[in-house]
Design a protein that fits this description.
The complex is a heterodimer of chains A (about 575) and B (about 220). Helix content of chain A is about 65%, strand content about 0%. With about 575 residues, chain A is mainly α. Chain A has a single domain, classed as Cytochrome C Oxidase, Chain A (Up-down Bundle). Chain B has 2 domains: about 70 residues, Helix Hairpins (Orthogonal Bundle); about 120 residues, Cupredoxins -  blue copper proteins (Immunoglobulin-like), CATH 2.60.40.420. Chain B has a 5-stranded mixed sheet with strand order 3-2-1-5-8, with no helix packed on it. Chain B has a 3-stranded mixed sheet with strand order 4-10-9. In chain B, a hairpin with a 4-residue loop joins strand 6 and strand 7. In chain B, helix 1 runs antiparallel to helix 2. The longest helix of chain B is centred in the first third of the chain and has 32 residues. Classes of the chains: A mainly alpha (about 575), B alpha+beta (about 220).
Chain lengths: ~575, ~220
């Protein structure tokens, strides 16, 4: 393994690459990471704006959205002052595309694509990924998937409108939704994006297994690397199931098969089984990297070792195994055999245990630390706080009888936004934390803190009251809550949520300004600005092609903060204490 | 938060609600505990440039065992407490001579009562769109199916929800304990008309129900 790492390190001498090889078809994992970051942030902007439109409609149903009047009928109907009214069909497309973009083209490209690519080689002391060409291909295939998905906005009939879960039979026949080509493009985009993720997953696994620097045992890897390793394994095993399901759906739509259509002998529930067999591991694919990053950041900024490192690693490993046994909890009221519902309730309750362990260990990490409330630390704490709410609200729907009532209501919407949209806090934490290593400059701290405070307040303002709506029985995916007498008394909460969501969206300007201003004019970053232990901070800032001048040797775990062995309160993984005296003798 | 739960008028709803309350209190305690500790630690242990060094500590096996076993015990207990209610609602529909059929379609509930032959699914079924009339204090069995896409039969006031799947027929049941008019929305995305696909459940006293049935179900004199 050290030979491979050394061989890649030697590539660092081939510096002179043309513009295209360097910035566009780059094989450098750090450039690919940045490409994924820009792709993800661009898609975040689009996904966020779609959410704003959904929220507008729910708070002020069938009123004109300012500035939307330029979109032609029947997609948007003209309103006063250049505004546009969203019709039901477009509304369905909005939330379908919002979720699809946020899951497959924001959280996955950023948490897995960007930070997996950037951090795995740097944190394990490798010069690059095992397969740099495959890595490049992974980004560009993902890019094509994004183009195909965005193209579906411009085809006749509009984009997919069957929900991101695309339940058959609604998604299997154009006549049911009125969307034909848009749904096909949705399927094709996800098929292509699956290929991109598969290539990434294979690369991550191979790199972590084979290219760890000398001394980097598995149980000396930072939890971020552990989380990405497990994520990659889950991706590798889960994606083929989605791919198969998508191909079957595409065949049902285009060549007349009947996998999911009862009139030809098919089973609509088969789609749900396949989709959620992928879909539940997918949730952990999204959240595990956020957990790993959070563990690293809490330790670094508490100046204290992670509490229960092994418990943290093993809880992630057990999540990886258990995540295959819980998919049926999405289907309690689907008509699946109720006896299976009981079994899936048990497994679901069990998978809550490792998440609880992680939360308690995060608390343990804070306990007795010397806590530095930097911007990345604030966001990491924000992630813990939101994950806590999302984890606890999950217990309600794990209980099958309670789920009968809250299934398909805003209680579920609140739950998965606290978990999945809560990942945005870990995402921002990671961007602020690794920005100096990635771009060689520091971000602005006051702007970052304003960004955190606004995001935290209005995130909770937008998502917490959704629990209230859910308790009142407010269904998901309805276009106009005022059509229901039992929901009318709750409408003020929809207005409150939308107002918070709009402010949450606008608050992100502080991030964009900070990001782009710091990119060009931020303070130059030193090699290790956070005084952190992991190997990426031993590499030059920003790291050159090949990362390390010489392959580092690892002497200890990643969390030796405030160790009694040294005067400083950090002790890098590659710092050779024994050879110190010998070095002085030269 | 619980004051927003819709009024419960079913026989099994209170069991669902009490599980809801139980989980609400358990998670409420956990939420407060973790949040207070987190805030406390952040304030108590913030860096103050007083030369204090963080505790050099890698964890504690006893604590790990405690906070693994306690949540696990709570979760497993919750599972077992849920089993019976789940079985009551979804697995063991009581026998009843009151059975109707509801076929969902874009974007209506098609309700059928047996005609003179007392059998469902025959020519003389009496059909209504979106309105279900039932007597109070009587178990109602519903044969639920769908003619096109997946819909979901949702009675918030009866704490009942069941998807209707094309190609399948599911038996669902409820028993209302209070006469009244209750909304019946579709809870599963079923197309552009999903929002607004709703019906009404009318729960009558036995006398009122008989009156309604005589007027609407009895064979019309030719």
């Amino acid at each position: 393994m050290s030979d491979t790492a050394a061989a890649h390190g030697a590539q660092g001498h081939h510096q002179e690459l043309g513009f295209i090889r360097r910035y566009i078809f780059s094989q450098d994992h750090k450039m690919i990471a940045r490409q994924f970051l820009f792709l993800g942030l661009f898609m975040l902007l689009i996904g966020g704006m779609l959410a704003m439109l959904v929220r507008w409609q729910l708070a002020w149903p069938e009123t004109a959205v300012p500035g939307l009047g330029f979109i032609p009928e029947p997609y948007i109907y003209p309103g006063p002052n250049g505004g546009g009214i969203i019709p039901p069909q477009t509304y369905n497309a909005l939330f379908t595309m919002h979720a699809t973009i946020m899951i497959f083209f924001v959280v996955m490209p950023i948490m897995v694509g960007t930070f997996g690519n950037f951090l795995i080689p740097l944190m394990i002391g490798a010069g690059d990924m095992a397969f740099p060409k495959l890595n490049m291909l992974s980004f560009w295939v993902g890019f094509v998937a994004g183009i195909v998905l965005l193209a579906s906005f411009f085809v006749p009939g509009g984009p997919a409108a069957g929900g991101w879960t695309s339940y058959a039979t609604l998604s299997a026949r154009a006549q049911y939704t009125g969307v034909d080509l848009g749904q096909d493009l949705w399927i094709i985009a996800l098929l292509i994006s699956g290929v991109s993720s598969l290539m990434g997953a294979i690369n991550y696994i191979t790199t972590i297994v084979n290219m760890r620097a000398p001394g980097m045992h598995y149980f000396r890897m930072p939890l971020t690397v552990w989380s990405l390793f497990i994520t990659a394994i889950l991706l590798l095993l889960a994606l083929p199931v989605l791919t198969a399901a998508l191909a079957m759906l595409l065949f049902d739509r285009t060549v007349g098969t009947s996998f999911f259509l009862p009139e030809g002998g098919g089973q609509p529930l088969l789609w749900q089984h396949m989709f959620w067999f992928f879909g539940h591991p997918e949730v952990y694919i999204l959240v595990l990297p956020a957990m790993g990053v959070t563990s690293d950041l809490l330790s670094t900024f508490s100046r204290k070792p992670v509490f229960g490192y092994h418990a943290m690693a093993f809880s992630m490993i057990s999540i990886a195994f258990l995540s295959w046994t819980v998919w049926g909890h999405h289907m309690f009221v689907s008509g699946m055999n109720p006896l299976l519902g009981t079994a899936f309730m048990m497994t679901t309750m069990v998978i809550a245990v490792p998440s609880a362990i992680k939360t308690f260990n995060w608390l343990g990490t804070l306990w007795g630390g010397t806590i530095r409330l930097t911007v990345p630390m604030l966001f990491a704490l924000g992630f813990v706080s939101n994950f806590l709410i999302g984890g606890l609200s999950g217990i309600f729907m794990a209980s099958t009888p309670v789920d009968i009532f809250i299934h398909d209501t805003y209680y579920i919407v609140a739950h998965f936004h606290y978990v999945v949209a809560g990942i945005i806090f870990a995402l921002f934490a990671a961007v602020y934390y690794w920005f100096p290593k990635m771009f060689g400059r520091m971000t602005n701290e006051p702007l970052g803190k304003i960004h955190f405070v606004l995001t935290y307040i209005f995130f909770n303002g937008a998502f917490f009251p959704m629990h209230f709506l859910g308790v009142a029985g407010h269904m998901r995916r309805i276009y106009n809550p005022m059509q229901y007498e039992f929901l009318q008394p709750m409408q003020h909460w929809n207005v409150f949520i939308t107002t918070s969501a709009l402010i949450l969206g606008v608050s992100q300007i502080f991030f964009l300004v900070n990001f782009f201003w710091s990119l060009f004019a931020g303070k130059k970053a030193e090699r290790n600005p956070w005084q952190a232990n992991t190997l990426e901070w031993s590499a030059p800032t920003p790291p050159p092609h090949g990362n390390f001048a010489t392959t580092p040797t690892v002497y200890r775990g990643p969390y030796e903060y405030s160790s009694p062995e040294v005067k400083e309160d950090w002790l890098p993984q590659d710092k050779d204490l024994g050879a110190k005296a010998a070095a002085r003798a030269h | 938060m619980m004051q927003w739960l819709p009024e419960d008028v079913s026989t099994f709803g209170h069991e669902i609600d009490s599980l809801f309350y139980l989980i609400y209190y358990i998670t409420g305690v956990a939420f407060i505990l973790v949040t207070v500790l987190m805030l406390l630690f952040v304030v108590m242990y913030r860096e103050r440039n007083d030369g204090r060094r963080a505790t050099y500590n890698h964890g504690n096996t006893t604590l790990e065992i405690i906070w693994t076993v306690i949540p696990a015990a709570i979760f497993i207990a919750l599972s077992f407490m849920s089993v019976n209610t789940w079985a009551k609602v979804k697995r063991h529909a009581p026998e009843s001579d009151f059975e109707i059929a509801v076929a969902a379609k874009q974007f209506n509930w098609e309700v059928s009562y047996a005609g003179a032959d007392a059998k469902l699914g025959t020519e003389d079924d009496v059909k209504f769109d979106n309105d279900i009339h039932v007597p109070v204090n009587k178990p109602i069995r519903v044969q639920l199916s769908s003619k096109d896409v997946i819909h979901s039969f949702f009675l918030p006031n009866l704490r009942l929800k069941q998807d209707a799947v094309p190609g399948r027929t599911f038996l669902v049941w409820f028993e209302a304990v209070k006469p009244g008019k209750y909304e019946l929305p579709c809870a599963e995305l079923c197309g552009f008309g999903h929002s607004g696909m709703k019906g009404w459940l009318y729960v009558h006293t036995p006398e009122d129900y008989k009156k309604w049935a005589d007027e609407n179900l009895a064979p019309k004199p030719q």
